[in-house]
Specification:
The protein is mainly α. The strands form 2 sheets. It has a two-stranded antiparallel sheet. It has a two-stranded antiparallel ribbon with strand order 3-4. It is globular, with a radius of gyration of 26 Å. The model is unreliable at about 225-285 and about 555 (pLDDT under 50). The chain starts with a helix and ends in a 9-residue tail after the last helix. The protein contains 21 helices and 4 strands. It has helices at about 1-45, 45-60, 70-80, 80-110, 115-120, 125-160, 175-185, 190-220, 240-270, 275-280, 290-315, 315-365, 370-385, 385-395, 395-400, 400-405, 405-435, 440-450, 455-490, 505-515, 515-550, and strands at about 165, 170, 490-495, 495-500. It folds into 3 domains: about 1-225, MetI-like fold; about 240-280, no CATH class; about 320-555, MetI-like fold (Orthogonal Bundle), CATH 1.10.3720. A hairpin with a 2-residue loop joins strand 1 and strand 2 (about 170).
Amino acid sequence: MYVSSIITIIITAILATLATFGRVALTIILSIVLGWFLGYAAVKNGLFEGVFLSIIQTLEAVPVITFFPLVLIFFVKSIGGYIGTELAVDFLVFTAVVWNIWVGEYESIKTAPQSLEDVVEMLRLSFWGKFRRLYIPVTMPRIAGNVLVSFADALFYIVVSEVITLGTTQYSVFGIGALIANWVSNGEWTNAFTGFGVLIVMVTAVLFGILRPFVNWAVKYSYDPLMEVTRTRIRRPVVTSRARAFVARNIRYIRRVAAIEDAVMPVFIKASSYAIRHRLTTRPRPRNVLTVTEKYVGLAFGIAIIAWLTYAIYSTWQSTWVPIINDIYNHGILYLYYLGLDWLRVALVTLASIVIAIPINYLMVTNRRVEAILLPILEDLASIPVSAYLPLIAIPFVTYLAVTLGIHASLELLVFIVAFLSTAWYVIYNMYVGMKTIPRSLWDVADNLKLSTWQKLRRLAIPGAMPATITGLASTVGSTWGGLEVAEYIQGLNGQVYMVHGYTALMDYYTAVGNIVGLEAMSLILAINVILLSVFVWRRLFRLARERYRLEGAITL
């Protein structure tokens, strides 16, 4: 009887995990497909490019919890039912994974070699032909680089959002997050641990059975125009005779061009410098300059948006904005105090993550054996959502440690650990990418100068990783806010509610009691705060990373 009940629990957990993975796959695939067309439109149209980049850079830094009132009002309340709840969950996950994918696809299409674009123009390929032969392939390496992070982000937020409590009403969908939360609230700890074990096994299977092979497959679409092409023994793909003939003709053409170049270029090299050869062999991409028509269209579009926003605010002034303004007037000081507390937690967690990431990444970059062992472990741990096992690790903090340290100190320690586990993996990953792209020649120079480990870190590793680290911090902070959201307010654990003084804790409390006006007011303050931070802080940090810490000619080790 006991064995049959365990088998039933395992089967239920497997089905729930498959449902959760299905939502994650749907949102990631939708993000990728939309990103192809939006990235192409941004590259080809200067007006759309400016609007697209401004929106992406702003929303990428906005925490997902800011969209919660929109989800509650539009999807849960207006549409209602299971469909409304399902759309709410999918929308929250979509806002968590879409931005880095879209940025990666846009940058890939933007930096596609001009010579390849000339080829597709000469072949007079159709719009779909250009996408299939050029733009989709060039985005594959960046998609593969972002899909691991997006998978982890999606799992984190989908587990949190599968159960939405608004006042005395609870909305949920079938998934592993809702299932574990239900088992924990009912005190069925054996079922909860079993479900969490199933989640770990299936996350590992997806990571190493699907995502890692996809990353390895996407590497073949990497393009390096200065890479020497040598004849290697490879497995011949099964292709049609027409495709084989097309490839053969192009290979013969490339070989002829290479032979002519090798014969002619020494003359120019002897007569001038490498810079002349670079200008002769590579044609710069045309800058996306706005035409006069596009400027007028953009102005008209901006005026239309401002007019629409003005009308929307005016028509809902009494019903929506007056209550929000009154709530901010009455509780604004309290909101700002709690916001300051959470920003202090974000700063401490980010600083701790950077301090931990530096030695880990240095070991992985300088020791291939450590990298081969540690990197897959880190990827697996990053993909397991901390929100799924939060109720399990919270038990000692509300029991034994609460007696030893005091309930307030114990909960603060729990919040720090959960926020750290939500942040550290992304800081480690971004810094790893930065250190990995430091040119091998610079490491050789450091070895020849016999620099110590500390000198290599201070003069090479940390400055070289700075651009990738700073660029990744904008989205990493959003993950920190997600960790604070799930840890500052914990309900359903042993029938109790545990919370600390914090901004997201108060937002979760307003959600639990059904205070929509207060939730809207706090979301508005957080959105304005993050937008101002994006404009006056992140963009300056991005500029600093590009101008001061850029390494020209960086190659992958």
